[in-house]
Protein 1
Amino acid sequence: MTDLAITIQDLRYRYRGEKTPALKGITLAVERGEFLVLMGASEAGKSTLVASLNGLIPHYHRGKMKGEVVVLGRNTQEYSVAQMAEVVGLVFQDFEAQLFSTNVELEVAFGPENFAVPREEIARRIDESLSYVGLEAFRHRSPSTLSGGQKQKLAIASVLAMHPQVLAMDEPTTDLDPISKLGIFEITNELRKRNDITLIVVEHETEEVLNADRIALFHEGELIKVGPTREMLEDVALLESMGVMPLGIPRFFKTMGFEKPPLTVEEGVNAFQERGWRISDAKYEAMVAAEKADLAKLKKPLIQCRDLKHTYPNGVEALRGIDMTIMQGDMVAIVGQNGSGKTTLAKHFNALLMPTEGEVLVHGEPTEKQGVFKIGQTVGYVFQNPDHQIFSETVFDEVAFSLRLRKLPEAEIKERVAEALTAVGLAGMEEDDPFSMTKSGRQRVAVASVLAARPEVLILDEPTTGLDYAEQRGLMDMVRRLNQEGSTIIFVTHHMWVVAEYARKVYVIKDGKMFLEGTTREVFAQEDKLKEAFLRPPHFVQFSNRLGKTLLTPEELIQCLDDA
Amino acid sequence: MDTELYLDYNTVIHRLDPRTKLILFAYAFIGLVLYEHPLWMVPIALLILLQTALARAWINLWRLRYLLFLLTVWGIVLWNLFASGDDPIFWFVSEQSLLFSIARTILVLMMIVSGVNLISTTRNEELVLGLIKLGLPYRVGFALSTSLRLVPTTAASLQTIAQAQRSRGLDLEGGNILERLRKWLPLLIPVFISTIRSTNIFGMALESKGFGARPDRTFYLQTEMHRLDWILLIVGGVITVVAVYLNLLGYGDIPGLQRF
């Protein structure tokens, strides 16, 4: 007899005020000790399903629920969220909002305290959970002083301290840099080995789910398919059609006609060598030379930093002497660990921050002499969270905001808004309410509102965070089009595949210094150095590095294959 | 973003039981609010500043310097409107009303300083625990601490939002009052919306950690009254009783002052 931890029977749910249901009849059983990953595009219903595991649905959210969810014998209809919390732990994507204590120990103590666990036992559980996630050294620190990865680890520890039998995590790694992501996945891996804990994780990053037992694929509120991890990841076409990023390695081998493609770097290298394939040196050199020639066409420096230093009023040295030059017409990525100083650097490009030492020149003139208002017309900055800037009732007003501030004639405003909305793919949605749009829609409105000012440079801070694979591609394709039409693009990101496919040059920042710079190919060739900066190229690039050449996409590899 | 007021030091004031600090805060209020004449407030004001010195909390007063300055100027002028006396100086200001204004301004400033002393040296959780041990229901105490927690996070998101809108060309300076108020809309709406969003997640996280699962809960944090706590409570109590007694005898009033 199998021992089931979770049974979901024909679960249907519609949030109040929504026309379409979020879940349309889900039936799923999860065994005790299993590690199940939920994947799917935005609005697929993954988060709704997670929220229904501990009774947030139907008790916390308002809406209409049918069917039933039973977790370890507790029917969510009959038990309160607090009662379910005794067996189901939940970790959210937003690590800022789920931490509320002023010190690490107290954060972990909060759950057990609510269940009236004796004080000595709480002390024991604090030790146990903190050492599990590797945060013992931080026990007296304030959570607000931790890095993003540490905060998410703390959130996990605070849930583990309640000794849950089911642990559900809703996109726990979305806002983290690659190595912090790995840290979280190492913890999940440890947990997976335990039989007493059932793991449910929502994840976008395909590379990180290889250790799962099964993958459940959702689309628009329906469970499309659930199966063993390997089988699911091999089905490149299915993943792609459901808006989930397929792995680069199986994508390449599928194109080459494999029925059962290898998944990991190791398997890929073996299969490649078994077939006796070779990468042509001549073709590779030609490709690299063409790329260099293209970059050499960019001759006019647009943004220059000279020994740029920035110290915040509280004494934190965020930038410690950066020299760099960004050419007009380039498309560059700035990468680095959480807290490395990359956002601080980007904010100097449009004078939001001023150097405390050294200087930043835009078109040869120091930003200090120009000021935000003037530079804003040359350098547009799209903030990470679109909700930090949207305030208008209609999309039109939002996009026109900057133009009206600059007192342009109404006719020109109309023309520019239309142009900007066309560029982001929102033409005809002028009268829509931006607040009711999806995250990706709001992100596009934010980009359009900056584009409308017709800046020469567009800075995007984490533009793809919180979007699904199809949306990420859509947004970055649009950005690339702007680059081809002449705009200079600078983006800050954690998503290494976005860097691999879209950046022409990469700047790696570490501890406030320029750690590595070069073409994307040059930078991704140096895996060891990247690791020191807590970064890691995508699996596919690692695979090609093992083959001796740095190739950024399956298409490039196919192009460089030796015909002989 | 550095917006928290708590200072992670280990001073003698930090080590006091939160209950002691809360009661000293109450004593300070009683001792100050009685008197109309500023001179009579000086001893208690000095004691509060001594507490600031011992707690090494000057940095927080420095952070609030603009607010404190504004309150001083406005206070000394505006309180004159609420009182009058026999010896006019000019327009609505008389000798008595001016003294009274200075006294009220000292009251406001010293209550802020006393509050800063409390918050600089007491963790949010300690404060709540202190209040609960003084008889406040847990849920009320928790709600209070949550609203305290919202202040630094909201301030931080306001900062980011202001940067976002400035880079779109918003200039917060200049214009008349009405125009300035309108300029704040692009800041306030996103602050409001993002606060609601994060509060929603906060609520979910709270319930998911079993908030209110049992009628009684344990507290990991322990507070203990030491000898110094009792000494301070007794000494403070005596000072407060003396202050009340002197006031009842009629000291510390301003002769000829009329309050409205």
Protein 2
Amino acid sequence: MITAGVDGGSRAVKAVVVADGRIIGRAVRDSGPQPALVAEACLAAACADAGLERAAVSRLAATGYARAVIPGADRRVTEITCHARGIAALLPGTRAVVEVGGQDSKVIRLDPNGRVADFAMNDRCAAGTGRFLEVVAARLGTDLDGFAVLAGAAGEPAAISSMCVVFAESEIVGLMAQGHAREALAAGVVAAVAARVAALAGRELTGPIAFTGGVARIPGFADALARALGGAVVVPPQPQLTGALGAALIAAG
Amino acid sequence: MIALDHPTAGVLRRWHAAGNLRLADLRFDPAPECLALWDFVLSEEDRLRAAQAAGGFIVGAMKDLGTIPVLVAAIPRARAFYPDGAWWLPCLQRQSGGQLAAADRLGIGEGFCPVRALLGCYAAGSDFPSPDLDICAVGATCDDFSAVAQRLAGLGRDPLWWELPAFRAPDPGEAAVTLPNGEAAPAVLVAAVAAELQRVRVALGRATGTALDDLALRASIRRANQVRARVREIRELALGAPYSPLPAVELLLTEILALHFCSDLDRCLEILDGVQAVVADRVARGVGHQPADAVRVLWLNPVADLRVLQWLEEAGGRLAGTDFMTAQAMAPISEDLPPITALAQVALCDRMIGSDRRRAALAVAEARPRGIETVVVARVPGASHGCSEGPAMAQAVATMGWPVVSIEVPVVADAASGQIRGRLEALLETALTRRTVRP
């Protein structure tokens, strides 16, 4: 059976087409102001990537913030459940998933069967989210991909104390004026966000920890997270597709 | 469930027209008795103003949740109400009442608990009449509320303060008494609270010109116990029935009545009788507003934005346990002990005056027989009460494997609706998944 999952995130829409539990097509698009249209286009692109027509997909599951408006979905499931399902397929035996998305961060604890035991998410503000990193990247004169390059090239990270996006911008401007390198600032932000996410975990996380979501692509972030959590962190291949994969697998039943 | 524009919801449209705009966003139990419950809660200002105009003595009983109103009800011309309840006004009114903005101007900004709305009411003379006496508990109470009350005192009010000490378990060998909730408490603690309540009793008598004798107090306790018993009955039916027979918001309103009787104890009993009859009838007929397989949730803390409870129900959850900070107001008051001692004992049943671990343990012990599957800790923004129950609850239920989610519920949750609803849905999905792996 061919199924698909579409993850309508706040910053990007991701689509995955799966046949017999294996990814055969994928696509990623910026969310834009009309997530329903983007989701349809993204799904069509994933189908094309698989060499299929949209009609070949027998069941579709939607997840992410836009899940309610994604057309044609047979199921609508939260990203908590989808990331857990996706990671259980990609990295069996994982006991915790950290996902840093566009507008929230999540720590999902899994039971030995790979099912969600409980979870925690950030409240209120953009601290510790992809959006926070985007704002910082813009202040450093680059985008998220450029930020990743900067963070990966740093030696010693600068100390960033503020997690309020507005205050952090001010702090970075001040540090730049003091002569801190952009690379050190980017690495400092990564370390600060990792510490914030680790605090979200609250209790000690045991067992293998996976890191999913688009932010996991940033070089050095997984290492910073591992230091903050005090344990090894594994990034699955194409981490931002994990939720869409989970949705596609859930669609298969 | 019906919306405000339903033909039978006319009684609520009156309150909507009066400025409670948020009522249009809620859904209501269609039973006339439940609509009467809403009307009773929303009409408190009218009742208080009428009573004061007729020479009644109005007492604002703050922070203490459930004890002082029993003392006040022993005085025929006195009525107690709960100024802290003003925290619901900005939500019901979609913030148009300006209470929070007024509190901002008085220096108590959004970093504080939404009960700060009461400052705006006092300052503007709106939403409730100026009380003839303010009585305010301090001590092991919410720090935010203490700050609000101190600011109120700074405005020229002169509250009668009384101290509610922190709860502690008896030391080994220490003289102890068993509280109505089954906990043991040091006898000296009960005596300390009783001394404080005796001081309040004397001050109340002096202020109203009516000495509060034991006979009047015992009569008041008997009537309060009728309210408490009725609330407990409704709650047991609502939380324990296979089909949820009472929506979550109506259950919250019912529990709130136990705190202060909405300033009319007799009418309060009539309202509760009506709700109890509806709920009992539904239980007998096996009907409810949620399917039998709805996920059974233990919910901690009241929410300012009432829609959040309805979001849980829309997502497929139902309340099977609550800790709306009202446990002490539902505990039966001994009719055998000296009245002040009996009141002191129920005051110490307040789960908010001890550690978060104690509160979590009491909530879990009470709810566990009802087949709880998940726990929601609804945090009140800025409130020092309820800020730490998430980890404590997670620890308390760790061996049971109930997933716990902690959410912060703003006064008006519009901006956070996506996040809150997503978390509630994820929690219910998690609970449903767990059902499939049970033996």
